[in-house]
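Exercise 3.2. Students should predict the tertiary structure of the chain below and write it as structure tokens, then compare their answer with the key that follows.

Predict this chain's 3D structure.
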Amino acid sequence: MDAPEHLVCPCTHAPFEDPVLACDGFFYEHTVIDTAAPLGRVVAVSKPDLTQALIEAAEQGCLEDIQRLVAHGADVHAENDAALSGASRYGHVSVVQFLKSLP
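Answer key:
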């Protein structure tokens, strides 16, 4: 299954592993920023807020994406456990089980 567009680097076309927000307002893979910044093409300004991506992945039942987001620091309890609520609402049992297993 292909990763949702918001979880894919527009340069590498691969799922994010270490995304950063650039000054142009887009997210890129950190390695892309490391390559482009010395050339004056784009500058990283911050790590992304992973909450919305986590909620969307939970609602779509994308367990692998959720695991990747959690590994990169997504707060599974953000917005009153919205990811868990979304996964429950859409009947994604494996996602619900995973989210409930986290501290």
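Discussion points: The first strand starts at residue 19 and ends at 22. The longest helix spans residues 78-89.
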